[in-house]
Amino acid sequence: MPYARRVADLRDLGLFPLDLVLLPGERLPLHIFERRYRQLYADCVLGDLPFVLVRAEGTDTARVGCAARFEELVQRSDDGRLHVIVAGVEAVEIVEETEGALYFSAMCRTLPDAAVTPDPELERDVRDRFRRLAERVSGAPRELETREGVPLSYAVGGAVELHPGIAQGLLELRDENARLTEVREALDALLTVADRARVASERAKTNGRVPH
User: Fold this and answer.
1) pLDDT in tens for each of the 212 residues of the chain?
2) Residue boundaries of the structural domains of the chain
3) Helices 176-205 and 120-138 sit at what angle, rounded to 10 degrees?
4) Distance between CA atoms of 148 and 179, rounded to whole angstroms?
5) Number of other residues whose CB lies within 10 A of the CB of residue 35
6) Could you give the CA distance from residue 104 to residue 39 in angstroms, rounded to a whole number?
């Protein structure tokens, strides 16, 4: 098993490549049907071990992924398929691929954040934009749910639908203020889209005529 080896700050972890990005603190439903990933699930659960969800586009795989844990088994089908909930833990760098398991694996190292103090103004801006976006999309105010120890940038990024490229950029940044700046810009873009959708909906009710 790849989890038996540990060299300095490196850990040999199973990889789960998908065309999506998981952020630390985010919870995500997954449908597991391939035999190798059912084995990954079994190894992680039996050994109480993490794995790495890493973005893969075609033959290209990112060098930074998110260490995660299988948090909940929602359903197990008769044919062995699994519906599970996974939770992101921390950003990791994929250093070198390894062998010996049915699934992909690699030596990985944790990527700690830089020691910076989050900018209070940036945090207020991000929280304000999140509340506004939630209200425009759902019609009701929504407070951000956060997990202890999860940076605000990751909490917001995991609570809205970000383009995978933007989410991957957040995962690779090690400065919380830089991430908050990126999240603020992403929220501004989402607010613009929400406003356009609202205007289009209102015009549709009047057959496209703009009311005087």
Assistant:
1) 333 344 458 999 999 999 999 999 999 999 999 999 999 999 999 999 999 999 999 889 999 999 999 999 999 999 999 999 999 999 999 999 999 999 999 999 999 999 999 999 999 999 999 999 999 988 877 788 888 899 999 999 999 999 999 999 999 999 999 999 999 999 999 999 987 766 445 544 545 544 44
2) 2-110, 120-204
3) 30
4) 18
5) 11
6) 11
Strand residue runs (E) in 19-81 = 27-32, 51-57, 60-61, 64-76
Q: Which amino acid is located at 140 in the chain? A: A
Report the interhelical angle of 152-159 vs 164-172 (nearest 10°). 160
Nearest alpha carbon to residue 52 among 39, 69, 66, 72: 66
Domain boundaries 2-110, corresponding CATH code: 2.30.130.40
Look-up: residue for tokens 């203020």? 177
Strand (E) or helix (H) holding 87: strand 82-98
Q: How far apart are CA 27 and CA 70, in angstroms?
A: 10
